Amino acid sequence: xxxxxxxxxxxxxxxxxxxxxxxxxxxxxxxxxxxxxxxxxxxxxxxxxxxxxxxxxxxxxxxxxxxxxxxxxxxxxxxxxxxxxxxxxxxxxxxxxxxxxxxxxxxxxxxxxxxxxxxxxxxxxxxxxxxxxxxxxxxxx
Length: 141
Hints:
By secondary structure, the chain is mostly helical. 80% of the residues lie in helices and 0% in strands.
């Protein structure tokens, strides 16, 4: 049986909403906006982003990633079986690959607080897990 692309897209969109809510929560509750301001004032971060409308682009990227994860879940469920266990595995593995290595390096070498890379890692790793669980919950053949 083929992949239900409509359900993949729907699951990816809803997963993207959940991931973006998680992203905002991480930025405000875990990292804290005051840390960004302090790092900018200390010259550790740029005052203006290099890319215009970075926040909008980040939101779109998280939606794209969530749709990719929904597709991955739909593909592997035929081998690993449907359900939250499979969604959790996919989200865990992709979230680790997306969030851990770069932020581990950043935490090791960057001159700013380690809370930044910790928050960014959690944003990607936990966000991938949440988005995949939502997509898996919505997916039907």
